[in-house]
């Protein structure tokens, strides 16, 4: 194809997106679009499955049978989200094995929030309420993104994430109505998860790369700072409802803007965790790599067995 | 409950003697504890499976078992009539009071063990459930009617994996055989009848599991053969779980399971 032809195709492509048409895997797309989507969707998929680990940590210790079942189901939902997202990613011509390889070698990123430890039961509440809550804010706009498989995956995912968010809030509510120890546990969890949740919405606009192109492709519809403000405005009244204190002395409702003003985020901590030096980066990666490596003989056996079966079938036919 | 006698219904609880109630309570726990402890073992694996699909499937099985456990315990609490909740029964007993068979408490040594444990249990579990559908006890019948589909699926899933791993690669064959050989000694305990089991079977409420021992070994052997595995010949079997004498793993399972309830007693979660 000549440069001119490509240019032409690109123009048609951008016009389709501008008209709100969906791009499907078989459609022509610029290489950059394909790469950007593989990067963002796989990062999202990796976040879902690494995200299973901090909550998985409490399945065996959940305080009641009802909570145990709900937690199992939640972590299972996250596996399902990973599955849809990997599948959507695979439509762009990359294999699941390659995607895992990128995760396991540290080439691909996942959400940094999952590098924090879950140290009490209340963390199950705080994660559902805050982390799933922030994820929803990030993801709802993606239900209208330009790439069809991603948009459709997001519709399903968002429905389940809002269920998780309500479930998490309900855990916090139960704790906040409970004993002194339970209230303290809930407050402590809020203290530890608040700032990392704000960081989940990404670096501040001044430092954020890729935004402009992403806006055009509807991979991003609002800036990180706008999303963060939305999250804070939505969450602070919920903390009030719980009778818990948001750990930010500068937090204050601003009558003039109609939004909450908030304190300085510790971006050094953010970058430290992003760069791999958070409290659990090593543990999370080891857990994923071990699961994959220990499962190799199982996957090989499944493949070998399927081949044997196929051969037997062919023999019968001939 | 009304007091009309009906062959299809259990004795109205009011008409049961204290001894009968005690036996029914113990009988229910004997079934339920198997599901609880196996669900707990499977719960340890969530997020660590060989791939996402099996991870999701094993979590499903864990959830099914947990659902069954809750129905049983809720009923047991009612039968006992001492104002306990399902959680009191699940979390607040001493190790010696748990009645699960030793098989279900065995660790997730590797995926072959997970599947062998599941398979050896599922074949039994489905046979038991089918019989329980005929129980004179309405509640147990209802739990069995609901659970039968789930357990049929578990059995299909684990049997398929036994075949895949047994007749997969040389490595998987070796690992699968190792797991079957190791766990074989825990199979016989399933067919032993406790005093409560016998009494409840005689009353038409419980299942006489000793009856399907032969059918069990026959079915297990068929799958193992199809999987190109050797049926173990050992005649030495372990027992004790049903009487509350567990393997050394059990204490650690309970340490996790009971952690919250023991650390923070009498709270709502
Ligand atoms: Fe998710
Ligand atoms: Fe997500
Ligand atoms: Fe979620």
UniProtKB/TrEMBL annotation, chain A:
GO terms for molecular function: phenylacetyl-CoA 1,2-epoxidase activity. GO terms for cellular component: cytosol. Gene3D superfamilies: 1.20.1260.10. One of its GO terms (biological process) is phenylacetate catabolic process. This is Ring-1,2-phenylacetyl-CoA epoxidase subunit PaaA.
TrEMBL record, chain B:
InterPro entries: Aromatic_CoA_ox/epox (IPR052703), Ferritin-like (IPR012347), Ferritin-like_SF (IPR009078), PaaA_PaaC (IPR007814), PaaC (IPR011882). SUPFAM superfamilies: Ferritin-like. It holds the Pfam family PaaA_PaaC. GO terms for cellular component: cytosol. Signal peptide: none annotated. One of its GO terms (biological process) is phenylacetate catabolic process. This is Ring-1,2-phenylacetyl-CoA epoxidase subunit PaaC. It comes from Ulvibacter antarcticus.
